[in-house]
């Protein structure tokens, strides 16, 4: 990147997008100060520590290792300089609520045979699907993810126009796409479960996201020792080496453009910063509607009301006595028909009657996250954003989920809990200023993909930029790392244009 020597930049929010942008900007020579509302860095990748238990509160899957390698390589490092990784095998276990159980492993031939055992011809279909997924992934990453194409003019490129018809499935739904390969409903669920992590449903997520099967089966699933919090620590340490200044417990309450600089108020004006540029990693809607004055907003409230938000979540963090066999490090519990659950998220918002959910048990891999003789686990149930989530419904749902776990996995948790915390819609609002309590950001629907997501550049205020899961390239830790680079590159490009 070009030099930003002598330029000051405030980064608002310490999620992965903000941490990434801070590193790139500091490397370019800027004086970078990152302001984080909460007492921890990492945004949704926060940690909860109680009585010897250490929980990742948010992301827990380490996917797309190539993105992390690329991020650290830019600065002359590799992930191993900051944290250790362990390949998980099985990648995850699935309990279907009809009593069936499947382990998804890293051996592709074994997985081919598994698919064939469920449906004649599905083994060949599996191979074809993954080969196509690999091609789509490599093309998408090179042409549409690592390259910031958040403006229409960015798509008027012969190479891009050539790439799209080659195989990127930009239209149609994942459901229709997967239906072309498989008939067995369980195989379809295996190929589509990761859509939950993209904040979508099979019916409303573009078929482009078949790339996630390459991520799942070909790139593998890993665990960073110490959890995803160890990755946060690694990126923060890198930023410190580059000269980034971090301030936690510093909530930005007002942001506006002055004559020569920005005016950033912290804690209702208790402190004021005047940086040359600002990069916002806070919730995009919150920043525009609550921090910026009306004349500096790109979008009105109607725009935000019309967006489709990714699910919120009901989270149950539990420290329990003894082990939790037969759960794996990553475990999914899926109903035979999951359409009603998606409908209760996107179409008729209510607490799901027959939920699909995820259980993470890091103590299966890492002894440091729980006291000896105990297990560390959390349960995540995707729910509609904006739901009322008072104590009464939470308590009812806790019993429902624990009963469901006991029935479908054989693990009884009711009387073994020594540490417990719950987290749901209102907590996402309070802790992260999350619009409607979304756990992820904007869903990856066809109308909210690529340049149809809010831009990294503000169209209303020169020198203001955005990063994170509301903008391009999208949801997830790897995407937010890349988003930070996009925001930083946009700032550098614009600063260079001004000085020419």
TrEMBL record:
Name the SUPFAM superfamilies for this protein.
Answer: FAD/NAD(P)-binding domain (SSF51905)
Source domain of life: Archaea
* UniProt record, GO biological process: carotenoid biosynthetic process
* Biological classification of the source: Archaea, Methanobacteriati, Methanobacteriota, Stenosarchaea group, Halobacteria
Keyword annotations from UniProtKB, A to Z: Carotenoid biosynthesis, Oxidoreductase
Q: Which pathway does the record list?
A: Carotenoid biosynthesis
Q: Which GO terms describe its molecular function?
A: oxidoreductase activity
Q: Does the keyword Aminoacyl-tRNA synthetase apply?
A: no
Q: Which Pfam families would you find in this protein's record?
A: Amino_oxidase
Q: What NCBIfam families does UniProt report for this protein, alphabetically?
A: crtI_fam
Stretches assigned to the Amine oxidase domain:
17-491
UniProt protein name: Phytoene desaturase
PANTHER family in alphabetical order:
PHYTOENE DESATURASE
């Amino acid at each position: 990147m070009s030099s930003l020597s002598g330029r000051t930049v405030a980064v608002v929010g310490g999620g992965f997008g903000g941490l990434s942008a801070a590193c790139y900007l500091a490397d370019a020579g800027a004086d970078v100060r990152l302001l984080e509302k909460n007492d921890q860095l990492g945004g949704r990748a926060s940690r909860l520590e109680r009585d010897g238990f250490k929980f990742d509160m948010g992301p827990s899957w380490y996917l797309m290792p190539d993105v992390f390698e690329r991020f650290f390589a830019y600065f002359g490092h590799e992930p191993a300089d900051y944290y250790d990784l362990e390949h998980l095998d099985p990648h995850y276990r699935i309990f279907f609520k009809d009593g069936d159980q499947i382990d998804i492993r890293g051996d592709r031939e074994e997985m081919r045979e598994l698919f064939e055992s469920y449906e004649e011809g599905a083994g060949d279909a599996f191979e074809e699907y993954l080969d196509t997924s690999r091609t789509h992934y490599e093309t998408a990453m090179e042409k549409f993810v690592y390259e910031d194409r958040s403006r229409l003019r960015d798509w008027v490129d012969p190479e891009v126009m050539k790439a799209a018809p080659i195989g990127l499935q930009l239209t149609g739904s994942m459901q229709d796409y997967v239906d072309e390969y498989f008939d067995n409903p369980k195989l379809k669920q295996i190929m589509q479960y990761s859509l939950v992590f993209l904040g979508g449903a099979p019916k409303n997520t573009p078929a482009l996201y078949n790339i996630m099967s390459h991520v799942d089966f070909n790139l593998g699933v890993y665990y960073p020792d110490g959890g995803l919090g160890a990755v946060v620590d690694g990126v923060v340490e890198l930023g410190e080496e580059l000269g980034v200044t971090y301030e936690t417990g510093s909530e930005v309450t007002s942001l506006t453009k002055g004559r020569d600089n920005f005016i950033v108020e912290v804690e209702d004006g208790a402190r004021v910063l005047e940086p040359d540029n600002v990069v916002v990693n806070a919730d995009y809607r919150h920043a525009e509607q609550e921090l910026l004055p009306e004349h500096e907003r790109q979008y009105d409230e109607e725009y935000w009301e019309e967006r489709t938000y990714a699910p919120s979540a009901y989270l149950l963090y539990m420290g329990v006595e003894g082990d939790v066999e037969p759960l794996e490090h990553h475990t999914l519990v899926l109903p035979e028909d999951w359409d009603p659950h998606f409908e209760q998220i996107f179409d008729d918002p209510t607490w799901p009657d027959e939920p699909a959910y995820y259980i993470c048990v890091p103590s299966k891999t890492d002894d440091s996250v729980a006291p000896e003789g105990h297990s560390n686990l959390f349960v995540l149930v995707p729910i509609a954003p904006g739901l009322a989530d008072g104590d009464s419904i939470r308590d009812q749902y806790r019993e429902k989920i624990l009963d469901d776990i006991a029935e479908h996995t054989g693990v009884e948790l009711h009387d073994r809990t020594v540490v417990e915390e719950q987290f749901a819609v209102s907590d996402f609002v309070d802790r992260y200023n999350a619009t409607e309590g979304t756990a992820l950001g904007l869903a990856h629907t066809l109308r909210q993909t690529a340049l149809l997501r809010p831009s990294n550049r503000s169209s209303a205020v020169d020198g203001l930029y955005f990063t994170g899961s509301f903008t391009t390239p999208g949801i997830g830790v790897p995407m937010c790392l890349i988003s930070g680079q996009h925001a930083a590159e946009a700032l550098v490009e614009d600063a260079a244009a001004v000085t020419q």
